[in-house]
Automatic annotation (TrEMBL):
This is Transcriptional regulator. It holds the Pfam family DUF5753. It comes from the Bacteria. GO terms for molecular function: DNA binding. Residues 15-71 form the HTH cro/C1-type domain. Gene3D superfamilies: lambda repressor-like DNA-binding domains (1.10.260.40).
Amino acid sequence: MPNVRQTREALGTRLRELRLDIGLNGKQFAESLHWLATKVSKIEHGKQTPTEDDIRAWAAATGTEDQVPSLLAQLRSLELAYAEWRRHLRSGTTARQQQIAAIEAETTVTRVFEPSTVPGLLQTSEYARSIITQSIRVHQIPDDLDAGVAARMARQDVLYQAGKGFHFILTEAVLRNRLCPVDALKGQIERLMVTTSLANVVLGVVPFTARLPKAPVHGFFLYDDRIVQVETFAAHLTLTQQEEIELYGKIFNLMHGAAVYGREAVALMTQVLHDLSAAEQ
């Protein structure tokens, strides 16, 4: 997973290559900008984050003004890339749900890949209660469980808005992971089966028997072709670089090829329900 240091180093490497292309060493380049040599070194080695003015000055000095928009996008990606969950959730889980809802409201096509957990837009209230309880306990944030569940349920109104499309791909593990009581899990699977009948929702499941085209390391959310969001145990990543968006779009398409849909997906979910019931006996 990318983090602040790696993202900053990537930007520094790109800037260093621009400097090397004009044949100046670090000291000479710093003098041309009336900077301390240490500033150039720190930026290039990912020890210091450049400002937007620094980026523009760097591009002007290397004759690469045409790259300013891309460089600024990379800088903003760095600024957004890593937000600690404790800070993100410092006021509880409700605010986070509202932030996601705002993004979903301005998105036309939402694509979601999940290898372990039912996406929030498809969760039942019982399932959501178990997931949000885990977040509150693990991250030791304010307990706003009821409000957080209500906010997550309110987000689901977007599924029924005209002009919006949704494509979800889940692994079979999502259906079997015991993240809530068995009865709640069975109710959640039944909800997913109903979801397959919605005209603007496409739901695929990657069976355990499928040959995986890429290891399902983590889930992600693609909002149109402008934002990718990734959740880790420690952080929430917002990726905005075009290369990153294209990469996640490619991975989504690969998972699409491995998934089953329609009757096959419903049959798989029915089998999981049968297995859960058999395990209770």
